[in-house]
Amino acid sequence: MPPDISYDIRYPEGSHDRIAIRMDNSGGIGVDADYQPPAWAKLSFHQCAHCTLDPAEHEYCPVARNIAFLFPESFSSTSWQDVTLTVTTDARRYSADTTLQRALGSLFGLICSLSDCPHTRVLKPMGVFHLPLSNDRETLVRAASFFLLKRYLEHLRNPDIGIDRSEMESTYKNLKILNRGLAQRFRGDGSSDAAANAFVLLDILVRDVDFELEEQLDALRTIFTTDQVAPGELVND
């Protein structure tokens, strides 16, 4: 059976890593029942400062366990290694020349959203509708849209629930702590800097989205409130 999402990271010398993600019945990442994660995936190994899981009940970090299962080899290349990334889904294929840390950052962001971590469960819809290598503007629009849609659907069930961005704000504050904790986990593992720096990039992306959120959303207002937007206004950077 073909994977639901595959990441193919091709290096200049011709070698490549292929990471095949298959979903389980709950919409998370399917992991073999008999899989034994490495020691660096244990919850107690550089556990995130705000983690609500108890190591006595959860032996492994949900995110680290999924990363270890999908990418069992050490990250031997350096962060700035040039790669060609191809991401294939059921609907389409994406391809881009980028760096290893950006490719891994995109992959790890997807894995986080599909992992059963208390701080990332709410991101599952964004993982289901994954956009590889999204930049800060794209991430802001996607995150705001998904969170507000979630609140609206909840409001339809219970009109007492207001439609606001409070959940998005609290989630992104938690993601900043999580990304730093996962970066520290990979530094403690002693592998190359690519994996750790991938989470550093995710942290920067999260901070870009979270920083002065009101002002950033206001900057998007003209795109959504006028039918006379010039084509150039829709282009980021």
How would the blueprint of this fold be written?
Blueprint: E1 5-10, E2 16-21, H1 62-70, E3 82-89, E4 93-99, H2 100-113, H3 124-128, H4 136-157, H5 166-189, H6 193-210, H7 213-219, H8 221-225
Antiparallel strand pairs: 1-2, 1-3, 3-4
Please report the number of helical segments: 8
Query: How many structural domains does the protein architecture include?
Result: 1
Strand-residue fraction?
A: 5-15%
Helix-strand sequence:
EEHEEHHHHHHH
Shape label: globular
Radius of gyration: 18 Å
Class of secondary structure makeup: alpha+beta
Strand order of the largest sheet: 2-1-3-4
Let me know the number of strands.
Answer: 4
Low-confidence stretches: none
Give the fraction of residues assigned to helices. 40-55%
- Give the end-to-end Cα distance, rounded to a whole number of Å: 40 Å
The overall pLDDT, averaged over residues, is: 85
Report the sheet with the most strands, covering strand number, pairing sense and barrel closure: 4 strands, antiparallel
Describe the structure in brief.
The N and C termini lie far apart (40 Å). The protein has one domain. It has eight helices and four strands, in the order ββαββααααααα.
